[in-house]
Amino acid sequence: MLGVGRTPLDDASFRQEMASALPRFAAHLPAEAAAFVPLLHYQSIDTGDPAAYEQVKQRVYGLCAELGIPHNCLFYLSTPPDLYPKISACLAASDLNTSGDGWKRLVVEKPFGRDLASARELNRQLLAEWREDQLYRIDHYLGKETVQNLLVFRFANEIFDSLWNHRYVDYVEITSAESLGVERRAGYFDGSGIVRDMVQNHLLQVLAMVAIDPPGNFDATSVRYETLKVFQSLRTLQDADLARSVVLGQYAASSVRGQEMAAYRAEPGIPAGSRADTFAAMRLFLDHHRWFDVPFYLRVGKRLPTRVTEVVVHFRKTPHPAFGVRGGAEAQQNHLIIRIQPDEGILLQFGLKEPGAGFHVKPVSMDFHYSDLADTRVPESYERLLLDCMSGDATLYAMGEAVEKCWSFIDPVIAWRESGEAPLFGYPAGSWGPREADALIEADGHFWRYPCQNLASGGEYCEL
Fold first, then answer.
1. Which residues are tagged catalytic?
2. Where is the active site (predicted)?
3. pLDDT tens for residues 394-419?
4. Which of 206, 257, 268, 309 satisfies CB 3.0 to 4.6 Å to 340 for a cystine?
5. 438 has binding-site annotation
């Protein structure tokens, strides 16, 4: 592994710096971590100087020769996005994008642009020097085990896939909550907001895994094509729809578990009059036969009560109440809860007869927790994604066209917010967002699920 950057370091200094981080990230692999450190190398260059990339090429090819391995190269750009075009072009100018002597792949992190126009321009610049099959646009949400398990859960279990449509599903909600504020990302976040930072990529990618049709084959081409079809079916939010379908908020000062929390505008590095959104709730529809007239509700925010990401599928109520009013809880719907983080797992809620006289229906649950697999370690997102990239498997990476489709859907929301016409509702830090978010979903006769009935570890860990 060759680290490349502006910081003047030699191999020994770089290894020492990386070795100090390994106990945190690879504590379960002490022997492998110790063997990994000597394989780390470093090259200091001016990343804006095309001639400097010849040094990178010579260093990479020299290391390959020492180890007797092909020139297979994965270039991971952990840099500001505005440097992607320059660095990718410089790599290409040194023939580090040609595959004759081994494969060459380029990994870029989000954000992939700031809007549709910039995303298209970024794709154009990258594709000027690299083929689409060489580009890997990484989104760590797709590397999460429970997000991938959505596909297996649906398509390996006919009992659920047969119910996965508008005949049986009433509505779907996707929640991604964080208890933290902006922390050290004030500059970036204030220029982006939660819709750009989370909805355009993470939440829409999770939605695609929920709504996707079964692919003809479980390979990268088929899965990515079906994912693209979901994004193509997103119903455009017209100007008249925005106020009825989108709620934006910003957290205000409050006391959370005895600790005073500052308002967003009082956070270090945030302008006093900032209108950046730290919360968003949205109602959207897919113009798709499978999901005809089924609303999808997205909810995402900072300074909410805890950290939790989950998908909740609400099934329709029985058309005829077999037990009448005597059933008591029978009116409750069946819910399928897919917890992405933390306490990863799946929970199915349904009704059973309560012991005793009469037919009183009691809600009960069947659940599965990954933590129950005591001998199985759930890999980190980047572990899976980087291994896939090395293997040439792009299934869990975003296509350029898919990225553009997501931006084309989100652009009207961002334009509405930036025009100053969108209301920005305040909500106390530590709450579940502004009351208007409840009104959004309740107007349809639906309700948010408020997760984390049990909060462990001082209120920070949300149990399924």
1. 202
2. 202 (proton acceptor)
3. 999 999 999 999 999 999 999 999 99
4. 309
5. no
